[in-house]
Amino acid sequence: MAKRILYLITSLMYVWTVCAQPDCFLTHYSSEDGLSQNTVMGILQDSRGNMWFSTWDGLNRFDGYTFKTYKARLGNQIALTNNRIDRMYEDRYGFLWLLTYDNRVYRFDPRTEIFEHVPSGNAGGSAATITSIKLLPGGVVWLLTEKEGAIRVVTSPDTYRLTTEWYAAETGLFPAVRVHEVYEDLSGHEWMLTDNGLGMLVSGRKTPVSFFTETAEKETKDGQPFYACLEQGDEILFGSENGRIWCYRKPTGKFSLFRLPGTSKIVSIKKLNEHEILIATATDGFYVYQFRTKTTKHYEA
Fold first, then answer.
1. In whole angstroms, what is the distance from residue 234 CA to residue 5 CA?
2. Which of 23, 116, 142, 237 has its CA 20 to 30 A from that of 255?
3. Cα 118 from Cα 121, distance rounded (Å)
């Protein structure tokens, strides 16, 4: 009797396990199905439900049935200087932002199927070597360069026309060569984390407020570099070098220094939960900081 009961329980568990498995169907798409190239660098589903694939040989739209390819060919009007697209993002207005292999950025309008080089040929920074695209929650797009600062791009919500400002040492808008990261805080201020301090851009202003910068006219800046940040309540934590984290108090606009035991630069600050944050370093492992006890635990290889 016991064996029969055990057999029945085992059978029921097997049936339940099989029934609980979701149906899963895999379909393989390649150049034989219309994809322009088999090396896919990015996949994105846009706000209209279309799937987009950035490849080594063009941009592809997939509507669930067929692929349509966009790439520069002899005689067509597509203004790409390189058909390899390494990065792809969609902004709040439905435009796709593309970073090509030759470090150029294009805004693509799926409605008109037009590619637009950003910045345009007559705008400052149009020849800069762009390494990444950052889309902020408020709709502003930042283009970070290799060693020519950063370009801030604003889209008009009415006409979709673009205006750009180039923040770099050579333009005089900010004394930095490299912008490592940009961040929009909950107050709508935009922060530049650079190799020469911090820049805070208040809404409606062109010139940012500078912190920890060296403004002397020389090739090597001595200002403090910043690489990562995290907004936590009334504070924003900014990671710098030598284990330094500068805490910006939003109500007062003042900074205080928190220093880790190590000497490596801070490359990432992430929230684990309401009471802990994780602080990653370049060469010294990572730390977990607890707000309640104000203690830090170090984890290394």
1. 61
2. 142
3. 8
